[in-house]
Amino acid sequence: MKRKDLLLVLTGTSGSGKTTLCTRLLKSFPNVDRVTTTTTRLPRQGEVHGVDYYFSTQENFSMGIEKNAYLEYSKVYDHYYGLSKEAVEQSSSAGKDLVLCVDVHGAQTLKRHFNATQNDRRLICVFVSPSSLTELKNRLTNRGTDDVWTIQKRLQTAEKEWATLPQFDYYLCSQDKESDWQSLQHIYFAEKMRI
Q1: pTM for the whole thing?
Q2: Which partner from 35, 89, 94, 159 sits 20 to 30 angstroms from 7, CA to CA?
Q3: In Å, what is the CA distance from 107 to each residue of 58, 131, 144, 159, 183?
Q4: Half-sphere exposure of 73 (CA within 13 A, CB side)
């Protein structure tokens, strides 16, 4: 019996560690490819165009919206993020699973899209987040990439995002990098064995 390849979506609050988990999954499993999303925000230190994100100008992103080039997109913290149809097609080699990091709104859109159409992949959405606003605030502060106003905005958004938790397949309550990695591996192995 042939099993469907997975599209594993990691979503959740900002500062949850989902990007770190995605990177580790890719390094550990050669049968997993990443779908790279596009953003209009500037690269953070160490981020590489075409690997972490496709970095785009606001003008180019807007032209993509007009041309219906995105499966999903949203404006988050004054910057656009989107999943282009081309990026999915380029990553859709048969026999490989795909992993994708998107915000909560993007994950909801993908779930609607995959539920409404026949697809040769099985979509699995994992919501990653620390257990409290206090822990999330500490992480965002220690990350050192955002000012106080932005952190406050991210915390307000996180409260709304937690309300969507029942819409997803798994909740990975983020504790530390090693525990989170063990949890993600358990989810991945379970889904690979699902009939």
Answers
A1: 0.82
A2: 159
A3: 22, 20, 26, 17, 20
A4: 22
Ordered structural domains, the chain, with CATH: 5-193 (3.40.50.300)
What are 140-173's pLDDT values in tens digits? Answer: 888 888 889 989 998 999 999 999 999 999 999 9
User: Distance between CA atoms of 3 and 193, rounded to whole angstroms?
Assistant: 9
**Burial status of residue 54 (CB atoms within 10 A of its CB: 0-12, 13-18, 19 or more):** middle
Pairing of strands 32-34, 170-174: unpaired
How buried is 132 (Cβ within 10 angstroms: 0-12 exposed, 13-18 middle, 19+ buried)?
exposed
Which 3 state secondary structure label does DSSP give 10?
Answer: strand
Q: Three-state DSSP class for 177?
A: helix
Query: Which tens digits make up the pLDDT trace of 83-115?
Result: 888 877 776 666 789 998 888 988 998 888 776
